[in-house]
């Protein structure tokens, strides 16, 4: 009966409001693939302000993407979404281990991603992309520092938080892969390069969940940089 009940829950629609090129959105798509979850994808047109409409703000007052709605429960911030999905649909999975120390390490890597790797990338690259600002060498140096830290974390480790693929890797690779659209050479860091290729080849559904969106992001960058 437990198995039947779980299948009923799994078959209920899980809505994901997303933008294909967004790294945080791609992290959610990667996690869903790893859990074999089908998401009901709802494209949000940021350019035309769909995220600012009253019906969207009612779901998510911060009007950000991605936003997940699971049986009436709304949650946003990608790292909160991916840990929620594993907690609900992947009990016992290595993706988000339940052992306190192992989980703490995954959490640390997730916080490192949102507060350091992705934040520094956004600080450096988005003013160039969306505001036409010149590259800032000091901000670039902070990204290099962050990549050096990631390289250190990966010393002697197959994945970012130990021997198994976790949501930390899925979140981090969504962020780091976005660097490909910029002038940041993350592959000069040997451990980062090795880890990157490992996750690309072992994360379930990587091409569909991340590469397609990354191509969309690269296309956006190419068009914006021409202006």
UniProtKB/TrEMBL annotation:
<dbReference type="InterPro" id="IPR004046">
    <property type="entry name" value="GST_C"/>
</dbReference>
<dbReference type="GO" id="GO:0004364">
    <property type="term" value="F:glutathione transferase activity"/>
</dbReference>
<dbReference type="Pfam" id="PF13417">
    <property type="entry name" value="GST_N_3"/>
</dbReference>
<dbReference type="InterPro" id="IPR004045">
    <property type="entry name" value="Glutathione_S-Trfase_N"/>
</dbReference>
<dbReference type="GO" id="GO:0006749">
    <property type="term" value="P:glutathione metabolic process"/>
</dbReference>
<comment type="subunit">
    <text>Homodimer.</text>
</comment>
<protein>
    <submittedName>
        <fullName>Glutathione S-transferase 1-1-like isoform X1</fullName>
    </submittedName>
</protein>
<dbReference type="Pfam" id="PF00043">
    <property type="entry name" value="GST_C"/>
</dbReference>
<dbReference type="InterPro" id="IPR040079">
    <property type="entry name" value="Glutathione_S-Trfase"/>
</dbReference>
<dbReference type="InterPro" id="IPR036282">
    <property type="entry name" value="Glutathione-S-Trfase_C_sf"/>
</dbReference>
<dbReference type="InterPro" id="IPR010987">
    <property type="entry name" value="Glutathione-S-Trfase_C-like"/>
</dbReference>
<dbReference type="InterPro" id="IPR036249">
    <property type="entry name" value="Thioredoxin-like_sf"/>
</dbReference>
<feature type="domain" description="GST C-terminal">
    <location>
        <begin position="99"/>
        <end position="220"/>
    </location>
</feature>
<feature type="domain" description="GST N-terminal">
    <location>
        <begin position="12"/>
        <end position="93"/>
    </location>
</feature>
């Amino acid at each position: 009966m437990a198995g039947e009940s779980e299948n009923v829950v799994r078959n209920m629609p899980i809505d994901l409001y997303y933008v294909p090129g967004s790294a945080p959105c791609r992290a959610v798509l990667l996690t869903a693939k790893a859990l074999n979850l089908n998401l009901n994808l709802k494209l949000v047109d940021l350019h035309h302000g769909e995220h600012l409409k009253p019906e969207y703000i009612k779901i998510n007052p911060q009007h950000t993407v991605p936003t997940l709605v699971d049986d009436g429960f709304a949650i946003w911030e990608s790292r909160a979404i991916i840990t929620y999905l594993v907690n609900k649909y992947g009990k016992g999975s290595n993706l988000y281990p339940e052992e306190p120390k192992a989980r703490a390490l995954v959490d640390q890597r997730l916080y490192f991603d949102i507060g350091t790797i992705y934040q520094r990338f956004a600080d450096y690259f988005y003013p160039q992309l969306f505001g036409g600002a010149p590259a800032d060498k000091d901000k670039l140096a902070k990204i290099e520092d962050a990549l050096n830290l990631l390289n250190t974390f990966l010393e002697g480790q197959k994945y970012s938080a130990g021997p198994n693929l976790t949501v930390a890797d899925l979140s981090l690779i969504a962020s780091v892969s976005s660097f490909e659209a910029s002038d940041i050479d993350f592959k000069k860091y040997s451990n980062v390069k090795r880890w990157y290729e490992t996750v690309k080849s072992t994360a379930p559904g990587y091409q569909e969940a991340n590469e397609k969106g990354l191509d969309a992001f690269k296309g956006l960058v190419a068009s914006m940089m021409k202006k």
